[in-house]
Protein 1
Amino acid sequence: MKVLATRRYPGPAFEELGDVEVAPLAARADVEALIVANEPVDADSFPSLRLVANFGVGYDRIGVEELRRRGIVVTNTPGVLDAATADLTWALILATRRRVVEGDRRVRAGEWTGSWADGFLAEELTGSTLGIIGLGRIGQSVARRAVGFDLRVVYTQRRRSEEAGLADYRELEELLAESDIATIHAPLTPETRGLIDARRLGLLHDGACLVNTARGEIVDEEALVAELVSGRIRAGLDVFAHEPHVPEPLLSLPNVVLTPHLGSGTRQTRESMTRIVVDNVLAMERGDELLTPVGA
Ligand code: DGY
């Protein structure tokens, strides 16, 4: 089976692919399987296409509906990136709440001249309220890690989940008003695009912190930038509406920590993602059932 991959994906599993070519997504009549990282696929350019194996759990940019209509199967990599994404969420929570990056900049700029007792105070994490928007696999991993920090945890979700004991349910508006830290773990769908709009951002209390390791488009980015520029809230952002573009005003703000979509970015996790991608391609080659078809 002729496979086209948009890059050499990490890990030894990639070597198990037989007829694979690493190249950009330009029209090809012979390609039967594509390996992409949530990149848009124009089915007209690949008339022999049978499989799109997505390197990632989110597949919002691929154009799944049209592919499915043409009988092309899409797979993703659920399950293996929950821990890494939850860990990065906590890195952003801690960095933002305890002003770690600001502190680092002060030291490097030679601005740490007085005593440790001279101000530069942050907000305590212990005892604060964490609001989780989307208690799926990643949201649950974030919630489990909250136990060690003695946080009160609330969550919101389209369907109430009975993930016993992890968090108490709130409507989205209630959650935003109540949270010291609100963290987003929902997929990007027509329902979640722009979910956190200007009005809802306004529900966060002064000094609250918004963390997003899901998708930039879930938040009204313009409204978020305005809130951050005003200095009213803080944020830890791993994702943006137009990646890799990051809104210019954010770059100089002390109240936001920025990372370049690193949620799944550990060697172990990315290699596991490649393993699933390759296993799906090999399964299709053998005519076996696919491991992780999307929406099946
Ligand atoms: C995904 O898998 O969708 C992530 O955004 C990659 O980290």
Note: Residues 56-58, 81, 263-264 surround (2R)-2,3-dihydroxypropanoic acid (CB under 6 Å).
Protein 2
Amino acid sequence: MRTQVGIIGAGPAGLMLSHLLHRQGIESVVLEAHTRQYVEQRVRAGVLEQNTTELLIETGVGARLQKEGLVHRGIELSFAGERHRIDFQDLIGRSITVYGQQEVIKDLIAARVTAGGQIYFEARGISLEGLDGPTPAIRFEADGERRELHCDFIAGCDGSHGISRASIPEGALQTFERIYPFAWLGILAEAPPASEEIIYTYHERGFALFSMRSPQITRLYLQCAPDEDIALWPDERIWQELHTRMGTRDGWRPSEGPILQKGVTGVRSLVTEPMQYGRLFLAGDSAHIVPPTGAKGMNLAIADVRVLAKGLAAFYASGSRKLLDEYSTTCLSRVWKVQRFSWWMTSMLHRCDTGDGFDHRRQLAELDYVTSSRAAAASLAENYVGLPMEGTTPRANTCEIVR
Ligand code: FAD
Ligand code: PHB
């Protein structure tokens, strides 16, 4: 088999890349280890930066997002029993959209399938060959047959546990990592969201996050131990802890409902440099992980493939490798800014006290500052809504585009 770009992984990075390439007349084949049903049901991120929303709409995969996505013009920060609003619209004239990652995945798969795109689900035993030569290849097994896919380029979009990064010879990459001493216990509950906006709570007992997926479904998270045993968290204990941490003096608390799903996710930062080796390009979680407190993981994955698609389009149009050679440098400049922002949000909102109360007081001062200084609030807003993509001018708000 032959194609122009072989893509490993049908997550947001791999599918969006395949979609963008198709729009430029470039052929690709996507290889995914799991079934279509599995990737379409996997509950993960839910916040789309305005950049991501605009890209989905502009490239023709935003119809359902425009109907079902919830436009948020701000977020709330809650501490010391009170909630404080950060008004994105007022501060920077932009907004975010809440729309589940699995919905983005469904829309992208539907678009690729309609356009006749090739996606092999349940592709097994993938190995990469000839990455530093002119004709790399991917060996894999699908439908009970061993296959070999010859490509001009390979995009490693296979997440943090994929084989792409691991296929690069030792010594060619440097990794920078920070593991935080806590994790997130997340639940999805069948309960109408008790607030219209996302609420980040700092509490003496630890961080808590209130979010949602639809007018019927609430998404909630609690800071927990990195090795937390989910079996020790029956539903009543989860609700009790959520109420203790999130309840504010005005009587607000999240509304309860049947818990549909629960799980524990680690919190870490990781950056791989460079994000390319020969004809292999890493994109999304295969190249970097951000702590979820900034809601950036999926957005960063989409930002990478936007740069990669542009580089590949330039190569096929003119033979120039300039943009491809600059891929890593271009992406890393954004990745480190996003990493900084996610680290900052994480350090401000999680309980990580050394015992002497220094951090606790510093965090309260930080929250007080961010919610009382317009300049500090605007900095949070600018990063949360998404820094401008290289070579683009930020536009007026998504509310107009979406509604
Ligand atoms: P992925 O979405 O991981 O996609 C990679 C794809 O490659 C997967 O479909 C995988 O099955 C496939 N794959 C892996 N190995 C192979 C292989 N060897 N061969 C073929 N295919 C392979 N971010 C937030 O902002 N907020 C959140 O609340 C949040 N929650 C998260 C919860 C979890 C459990 C996880 C893991 C991540 C979460 N994230 C969250 C991060 C966000 O979801 C990711 O940043 C985003 O999915 C990155 O997209 P990606 O396409 O790079 O990788
Ligand atoms: C979510 O809705 O899942 C969500 C929202 C904000 C975050 C992380 C996750 O920072």
Note: The first strand starts at residue 5 and ends at 8.
Protein 3
Amino acid sequence: MLKQTFHCQRTRVYVLNGPNLNLLGTREPEIYGRATLKDIEKATAARAKRHGLKIVFRQSNHEGELVDWIHEALTKGCGVIINAGAYSHTSIALHDALKALDKPIIEVHLSNPKRREAFRHHSYVSEAAKGVIFGLGSTGYLLAVEAIAELVGAGTDLK
Ligand code: DQA
């Protein structure tokens, strides 16, 4: 399934979260679930640890800040997991920043945007991502860690 192996010098995976995801837990729980972003961070860090990976977990409501963090991942990260929230559907700037990144990128959405309003059906992030996981709630972040670990060969050739 995941054939290509990427080599990175660092074990750091950036997990970037876009606008309104700081409200998880109380924001439309029937769509996004009851887990808070802190809960997701803890679970994601624990899963990454199993693979000898460390996560840098961040959230911003500002597009430019997310762009800056993608640039940071260029030099300091070995992969990116991104839930860009509504910017997924609007941001060419995020698309371009991700395209500049020669590391595996996994896009995550808690909900399944394809089953929702038409304006959520297209994602600029998907076009830059290696893989996309959506509709599985917070489990999607854990599956994204598994995918990144396999793509970077964590636990095998990482020191
Ligand atoms: C989301 C889906 C987006 O359409 C929405 O704007 C979000 C959350 C998700 O995780 O399901 O903010 O990215």
Note: Residues 20, 83, 85-86, 88, 109-111, 113, 120 surround DQA (CB under 6 Å).
